[in-house]
Design goal:
Layout (H helix, E strand, L loop, with lengths): L3 E5 L6 H12 L2 E4 L1 H12 L4 H6 L9 H4 L2 H10 L3 H15 L5 E5 L2 H5 L5 E6 L2 H14 L6 H17 L12 E4 L5 H17 L1
Parallel strand pairs: 1-3, 1-4, 2-3, 4-5
Helix pairs in contact: 1-10, 2-5, 8-9
């Protein structure tokens, strides 16, 4: 069976949590495509050129979760993600993953619009910038990373602006995507809604 779920949306909206839960619930493989860009961003911070870093990317680069989740790497990832040459290098990897036997869940910024325009289910998970910044601040604080709420909000807003205005695959909800706003929604409620959507599609 090939069944593809595409989940897009801005940072800290909850799409990663939802994607992992959906993959576990339905026995699907999961790819956080943002990790591809974070891994490229990390390599760029080590001195590599963006396109060379994307070309040399290996699956093992995605396993270093701690080093890929820092604010500096997130910033670098957002900056390399606007480069068409970098996106092109990572395109085949993502599409091949989406077509794997047994089905797959991919989350990112352009899954439903560019990577998997024919996905069986398309979701756009979003929330207000303030709500997302607060979630990210608490996450960083729990890891002992010292940042202010104001700085995290500014970073979220700057990243949103870059992701939505870039020429190459801007972040936007696919026309046939179901939008889920988690600003005032618990993760349990969001997951219930997602399961309902996927269940109806599987029945059809």
């Amino acid at each position: 069976m090939i069944f593809t779920v595409a989940i897009d949306g801005p940072a800290a909206a909850g799409k990663g949590t939802i994607s992992k839960a959906v993959a576990q619930d339905y026995g699907l493989a999961h790819l956080d495509t943002g990790l591809l860009y974070r891994a490229v961003g990390w390599r760029v911070l080590q001195g590599e050129a963006p396109v060379a870093a994307a070309t040399a990317l290996e699956a093992g680069d995605l396993s270093h979760d701690d080093r890929l989740r820092t604010p500096e790497v997130a910033q670098a990832a957002s900056e390399v993600a606007v480069l068409p040459e970098v996106r092109e290098k990572l395109l085949d990897f993502q599409r091949n993953f989406a077509r794997r036997d047994g089905g797959a869940v991919l989350d990112g910024r352009d899954i439903g619009t560019v990577i998997c325009p024919d996905a069986d289910v398309k979701l756009f998970v979003t929330a207000s910038a303030e709500a997302r910044a607060e979630r990210r601040f608490l996450e960083l604080e729990a890891k002992g990373i010292g940042v202010s709420r104001a700085q995290v909000l500014a970073d979220v807003q700057a990243r949103d602006a870059r992701d939505s205005s870039r020429d190459a695959a801007p972040m936007v909800a696919a026309e046939d995507a179901v939008t889920i706003d988690t600003t005032n929604m618990s993760i349990e409620a969001a997951l219930d809604r997602v399961r309902e959507i996927i269940g109806l599609k599987l029945q059809a």
